[in-house]
Here is the input.
Amino acid sequence: MQINQMETPVLILDMDKMEANIRTMQKLVQSCGIALRPHYKSHKCPQIAQWQMEAGAVGITCAKLGEAEDLVNAGIKDVLIANQVIDPAKIARLAHLARGCRLGICVDDEENINNLEKAAALAGSTLYCLIEYEVGMNRCGVET
Here is the structure.
């Protein structure tokens, strides 16, 4: 197929450059003694997330529950949702999803934490909560 015959949007990769970039980033963070958890929004491609994991990433970060579901369904076993999930129906989906992976979620509200805990207990799963701190952007997070 010729490039001008492809329907857009379409992802076209230079595999050599992409693999080199993944290796370079992994080496950089390892040399600093830290773990890499790339954000899914940079590519929104489960296969690329899998390659990042194979290169040594500890997990993948995403923004939304639907993205986490895509990642887990693609075989990613460690996912962090970097936002709060507060809708009761989504909390139930989240707790169910956590039965098949290590699922982290950012929190900044005690009631939300209690709702997540109850849903996880009902689903027989574990949710890993990270407390989000307000860092001066006035978007979310606790101050103490």
Notes: DSSP finds five helices and four strands in the chain. The mean pLDDT is 94. The first helix runs from residue 15 to 31.
